[in-house]
Fold this protein.
Amino acid sequence: MNFKLRLLLYLFIALLFILQIRFEIFYRREFRPRTPAEIEASAGDLSTLDEKTRRAFSPGGMFEPIDFEKLNGAAWLKSHYEPGQTFDEYAASYSNKDEKRNKIYILPVGVITGETHLIIDKMKGYCEAFFSMPCEVMKPSALKARSRVNAHTGKLQLLSGDLIKAMKPLLPPDAYAMIAITMTDLYPASAWNFVFGQASLTGRVGVYSLARYDPEFFGRKRGNDYEKIFLERSLKVLTHETGHMFYIYHCVFYKCLMNGSNSLAETDMAPLFLCPSCLRKFHHAVKFDPAVRYKTMIEFLIKNGLNERADWLKKRIEYISGK
Ligand SMILES: [Zn+2]
Ligand SMILES: [Zn+2]
């Protein structure tokens, strides 16, 4: 083949390659709402399971599928491509299990007031119930990190990437994951205004700030139901983010704890619990009796004034037991 012909051939191959990449980027950016049949099938084949387990992973009319058309323009799925993840896809790919790593650690970071201590203690209690594994609060730590004062809020912020880097060597050998909690605001890079949190899934560490969950951060008065709202937000961030540590992707099937969120308002609207598909994924990673796990969660929720949430779980137990 002469030189010109070969050059043309190479150019043609390069063009095909570029077109394919462009097509993929374009294609992948389009979120595709799932059909009712896909939503139903998302928890995998339940026919081989015993009756109670099958019910635990069936919606039973208690979970609402995501209605993409009804989401408002600011919703996460309207601006983020999500690949979705069925139970079958999860079961075929989950490989982060390590028998020696069976504990979740919470590391308080920064200034810890009495109020923060209290909330972290509650997070530990819920963590154990939700993840069905022991959870330990570590001694508060002042991790080395760059900081700045945010131009909009006038509040101190810590560079989240520095915190992640400082946490990695502190990971205990039996830690499935280590979650740092701070009341100081975070930023991921100088160009960003702020970030709620950041994680390294392979490093099994994540850091999350509760600062913006408190209206006082924005100079607003705390409402009468402040404590309840703050607690629920804190429990959601802990369980959602640790859920990612189990390699559970953002849920695209039901209204679920694992839905992506663009704002505090969207987080507040998201359920506190896993949908049947995400629950089965978590069950694949950590074996537990679904009704026993719900009972432990109910005890915590009642003790901490989240009775409505507890009532929903009670109904769920009734459904699982076939009552
Ligand atoms: Zn997430
Ligand atoms: Zn889900």
Summary: Residues 251, 253-254, 256, 258, 274-275, 277-278 surround zinc ion (ligand 2) (CB under 6 Å). The chain is about 45% helix and 10% strand. Strands lie at 103-109, 135-137, 147-149, 156-159, 175-182, 185-187, 197-200, 205-209.
